[in-house]
Amino acid sequence: MPATIIDGARVANTILAQTHQRASDIATALGRRPCLATVLVGDDPASRTYVRMKTNRCRTTGLDSRSRHLSASTTTSEAVALVRALSEDPSVDGILVQHPMPAHLDERAVFEAIAPGKDVDGVTQASFAAMALGGNGFHSCTPGGIMELLDAYEVDTAGLRAVVVGRSSILGKPVGMLLLARDATVTYCHSKTVDLDQIVAEADVVVAAVGRPELIKGRWIKPGAVVIDAGYNPGNIGDVQYAETAERARLITPVPGGVGPTTIAVLLRQTVTAAEVASL
Ligand code: NAP
After folding, report:
1. What atom in ligand 1 is closest to the CA of residue 264?
2. CA distance 178 to 146
């Protein structure tokens, strides 16, 4: 039987409706709307599009946004200074530094300039540690959104074998840790992994987080597996061979319309939470 297609937009809209209500409530208490500041460095068209999608979604969800755009020749210290200023600005609740940043910048240094209470994209070491240790902190948004999808489709990962392909600090590593916290048995794969096909073939849950079009072949997928494709490649192509995988999997995310919408919904929800905490 072909897979059920996970409707990321539907899951995101449920989160956004709750977030809109909470944003209205906190606006009454604060005397202003929750505010997300975005920082974009350079002119990468995809990054511009992602920032625009996020600020548009703020508007329709009852949040304010403030966009800061730095030129591609910006230095690390200039970017750090801007992020520090936003961290100290009491009218800003959350900060999103769009990544990847231009290669000459020390991205980690810029991330670490985000005050932990405003790290609504979950990119700082403090947020990562809190997530890994099960403490309070904001999740990296795409992994957080993937957990929302699993919850919405009632996937109980306890005891399941989960294979995460990709180990970036914002996506692969944290999603594996969140699955581990839910008692999955987690294997990470990466560019040096040998026999990727055989490892994927053992997975009850596959998370693809690579950025290589259709790297994961449908014939590798264990019948009945849950397949989450976080990859996004030009031409609306994911990291998973979609049609062939949908013939074998139980659940599958489409690209687009799977992981992407919940990523933005989690970002906005975390911004409203930051505003609530700041108002206490
Ligand atoms: P990244 O930092 O480039 O990491 C890619 C990972 O894939 C690395 O760990 C790399 O291994 C691994 N890899 C590369 N080639 C491989 C291969 N042949 N076999 C197995 N693993 C391989 O990318 P990212 O930022 O995590 O993003 C990954 C994808 O997710 C991209 O398509 C991106 O557009 C998408 N994404 C989507 C969202 C969303 O909201 N939907 C958000 C973020 C990212 P090494 O560590 O060994 O180099």
Report:
1. 40
2. 10
Q: pLDDT tens, 188-218?
A: 999 999 999 999 999 999 999 999 999 999 9
Tokens for 224, please give them: 């009945």
Tokens representing residue 27 in the block: 């606006």
Atom of ligand 1 nearest to the CA of 258: 41
| CA 41 to ligand 1 centroid distance, Å | 21
* 98 is annotated as an active-site residue: yes
Q: Please tell me the distance from the alpha carbon of residue 113 to that of residue 120, in angstroms, as a whole number.
A: 13
- Protein residue with least CA distance to atom 1, ligand 1: 168
DSSP 4: E
Provide the token pair at 186.
């987690």
Q: How far is the CA of 166 from the centre of ligand 1 (A)?
A: 5
Determine the 3-state secondary structure of 192 from DSSP. Answer: coil
Count of Cβ atoms closer than 10 Å to residue 178 Cβ: 25
Q: How far is the CA of 277 from the centre of ligand 1 (A)?
A: 33
Rg, the chain, Cα only: 19
What are the start-end ranges of the E strands in the chain? 4-5, 35-41, 64-70, 94-97, 161-165, 185-189, 205-208, 226-229, 251-252
What are the Cα distances from residue 190, in Å, to 98, 122, 125, 165, 177? 23, 22, 21, 6, 15
Query: Is the CB of residue 142 below 6 angstroms from any atom belonging to ligand 1?
Result: yes
pTM exceeding the 0.85 threshold for the entire prediction: yes
Report strand pairing: 4-5 vs 251-252. Answer: parallel
Closest CA to 205 of 171, 172, 156: 156
**Among protein residues, the one whose CA lies closest to atom 21 of ligand 1:** 190
